[in-house]
Amino acid sequence: MSIIDRVSDHYRSLDRGRIEVPEWGEGDGPLIVTWTDFTLQEHSALSKLAGGDNFRLACHAIERNARNEAGERLFAGGDALKLMRGADRRVVLRIASAMLDVGTLEDAEKN
Fold this sequence. Notes:
Layout: H1 3-13, E1 17-26, E2 29-35, H2 40-50, H3 54-65, H4 79-86, H5 89-100, H6 105-110
Antiparallel strand pairs: 1-2
Helix pairs in contact: 2-3, 3-4, 3-5
């Protein structure tokens, strides 16, 4: 097996990320958001789309990669704008920070 095959196999074997979002839950339970890690290509495309705006990056990351526990998309195209206009910034940043595997996007915004 070549090194690139081992690299690809490793990526495919990664566990899905998971976060509980009580603010967006239904009834007594939190919304469970899962995701697969972004590839470098996907992350690059998101970064270009966001144009250096960490809040846009957060909303687009959630729109594109948030899934329920069955792996179904939670958001549709165009929902990033709705998140930017009408969602709690702290919740969006908490989810996106976990998805993008950074300390917090708020910390990145300060740097």
